[in-house]
Amino acid sequence: MKRIITIFAVLIMVLTVAACNQLQRSDHPDEGYDESLYNENDNPQIGYVGNPVDRNPPNGRNYSKIGFSRQQGKELYNATDGGSVPGPDVYIDRNVLARQISFLTTKLPEVADTTVLVTDDHVFIGLQGKKGSVSDKTKYEAKRTALSLTPRYYKILVTSEAKMKQRLNDIGSKLKQTGNRDVDIEGWIRQLEDGDSGGFDKS
C-alpha cells in the first residue's frame, strides 16, 4: 500500500513540474530562437538564384519554393517557438549574405574576383576586373545586385581600387583569426563607414 502511495505521489510531482515548465515556456519564449532571412538549411535543389533546376518541368512536380504568411494583430503566439511574441526573431546571417553577394557579383561579365564585407548596416564590395579595370556600369550593377539582397536601410559601397579591396581582405583574414573581438577591426570598419579611407563609389 505504501508503495502505491509513493508511486502516486511521484506521479503527481512529475505532472506538476511538467505543467509548470509548459507555463513558463508560454510566459518566457525561447529568446535564443532565431530565423535567418538567408537560411542555408533549405532544400539545395530549389529556391536559389542561378540554380539550374528547371522551375517548370514537364511533369509539373518540381516547383520553386514559395514563401507565404498571414498574421493577425491579436495573435500572441507564433508557430516556431510557442512564445508570447508576435512573430519569430528575425536576423540576417551576415556571412551568408556576404557569400551570396560575392557569388552573384562574380557572375558579372567584367568581374574576376569579389570581396564582400557586411556589417550591421553597410555592405562593402571590392571588385577585381578580368582585364584590370572595372567600368562604372559594372560597379553600378554590383551595387544593384547587393541592393536586391539587403534590407533598404543598408548602405552599399563599391570599389575597384586594389588598395581598398586589400583592406577588405585584411579585415576578413583577421576576422577568421580573432572573430569580432579585435579592436583594430572595429576601428577599420568605422573608418570605412565614415568614408575616411576614401576609394568607394558612393553614388
TrEMBL record:
Residues 1-18 form the signal peptide. The keyword ATP-binding does not apply. Keywords: Signal. Residues 28-64 are annotated as: Disordered. It comes from the Bacteria. This is Sporulation protein. It comes from Kroppenstedtia pulmonis.
